[in-house]
Amino acid sequence: MSHTGTGAQSRPQRHAAAPGGTERAGGTGPGSGNGTLPVDRTGPVSGGGPGPEALPEAVPAPAPAPSPTAATSATASAGAGRRRGRERPRLYAIDALRLTAALMVAVHHYVGTYRVDKPHNPIWDQRASHMMPTVFRLAAYGWVGVEIFFVISGFVICMSCWDRRPRDFFVSRVIRLYPAYWFGVVFTTAVLTALPAVWPRPSIRQMVFNLSMLQSGAKIGSVDSVYWTLWSELRFYLVFLVVVATGLTYRKVVVFCCVWGTLAALAPVSGFPALQLLADRDSTWYFIAGLALYLMHRFGPDLLLWGILAMSWVMASDELGRRIVHEGVSSWRGAMILFTLFLLVMVGVAVGWTDRLQWKWLATAGSLTYPFYLIHYAAGTTAIHYLHDRADPRVLVVSVLAAALLLSYGVHQLVERPLARSLKRGLTGAFDRLGSPPG
Fold first, then answer.
1. Residues 5-47 pLDDT 10s
2. Contact assessment for residue 108 and residue 139, using Cβ atoms and an 8 Å cutoff
3. Helix (H, G, I), strand (E, B) or coil at 87
4. In a domain? residue 419
5. Which residue ranges run through the membrane (predicted)?
């Protein structure tokens, strides 16, 4: 698993698109039933790294677009999306966006939620809007970082899965998600067991089942409510695996976006729980936006991809509105402006405007995003509870963020990387045995 960039490389000539080719409602804290974040930094070969999805070191440049005649051929269509070419530079801008989104969510949890703005709340013991009015007004929009995570996830999952087998996809997801997550569950359980002043002590049964990452589906409370986003990620992986199994092409991913988006729009009124489970209207269109942005990055933008991205933006306006009702501390207009600005930055990433950003330290910063997200909330708010009378609130928030980032670096180096290597060897060997002749 590699965590540094490949360095600046000359960008290949772009071509036209190949025609053929935080807190959530019901989950207001640790122990809630709904229990961000998490992308794949390892790429097609290594398969491990920081964050639910992390960036491959480099992405193969697409082959030149086929002629209209050739594009009608199934062979040409598949080849346009699968042939390997020169490598592009690492997308350090994605690392920067991931870390920014994680910090947005953390500051929101510490200073900008309705929970911390209640009188005599267990975190600050006074209203955050009275202690830090300006910080509170800004932090109130930090929950949009979750939606940003989902868009980035769609982009990077599509990028890291191109030309990969289903088994590679499965292995990369396991070694990406579980090592840091297991640490987060055990660490948070230990903190809440020793210091239950803010959140209730998790039961042993709850902790053990949380290790599966399936607690939301089983209606068992999460040790830390921020885990709800991982349930959304898992469902996205399961659905997208169907396309990965057939081999990713421009056409297949576009069709997937259209079909999955339609199902997500119909799911709430369908009366089919299975459809509502696999096409969740609260996250589906964010993942679709990321997929469309990656197709722009790989093949170049076209009217169809712009249309998918525009529809994602429209559907996001509805989801953001529903989140506003739950959060109760921010406005729909402000959330839409923030999300729109992020989408514009992602368009810049997709079309290559940020390729000159080659700050290699961003790769390390991005690697902290996933463990940071997993450990920041319950443990961080508990720390604030015990320390808020001893320091200026602004200094305390910065200190807790810094401590969480430092711990995240240790988790990444001492837990994620070695455990991911061991898991990869074991899972690869197991799949090799499955594919070997009997005897």
1. 333 333 334 443 333 334 444 444 565 544 333 333 333 333 3
2. yes
3. strand
4. yes
5. 91-111, 140-159, 180-199, 234-250, 257-279, 285-314, 335-353, 395-415
Q: Where are the alpha helices (DSSP H) in 128-203?
A: 128-131, 133-139, 144-161, 166-194
Contact criterion met (CB below 8 Å) for 283 and 270: no
Nearest to 244 by CA among 81, 77, 95, 84: 81
- The 3-state DSSP class for residue 286 equals helix
Q: What is the pLDDT of residue 168?
A: 93
Q: Could you tell me which of 34, 376, 25, 29 has the C-alpha nearest to residue 196?
A: 29
Residue 438: the pLDDT is: 56
Residue with the two structure tokens 């040790």: 223
Q: Is residue 84 part of a domain?
A: no
Question: What is the C-alpha separation between 48 and 394, in angstroms, rounded?
Answer: 36
Give the separation between CA 426 and CA 420, rounded to whole angstroms. 10
409 in any annotated domain: yes
Q: How far apart are the first and last CA of the chain?
A: 34
What one-character DSSP code corresponds to residue 22?
-
What the block records as the tokens of 439 is 């005897």
- Separation CA 292–CA 343 (nearest Å): 11
Look at residue 313 and give its three-state secondary structure.
helix
CA dist., res. 195 & res. 37, Å (int): 26
Residue 216 lies in a domain: yes
Return d(Cα 1, Cα 42) in angstroms, integer: 6
What is the rounded CA–CA span in Å between residue 160 and residue 174?
Answer: 14
Please tell me whether residue 262 adopts helix, strand or coil conformation: helix
How many domains would you assign to the chain? Answer: 1
Q: What's the token pair of residue 204?
A: 């042993």
Other beta carbons within 10 Å of 61: 18
| Rounded distance between C-alpha atoms, residue 63 and residue 68, angstroms | 15
Which tokens belong to 22?
């935080």
Q: Which regions of the chain are under pLDDT 70?
A: 1-88, 436-439
Contact of 149 with 22, CB cutoff 8 Å: no
Q: Which domain holds residue 344?
A: 91-432
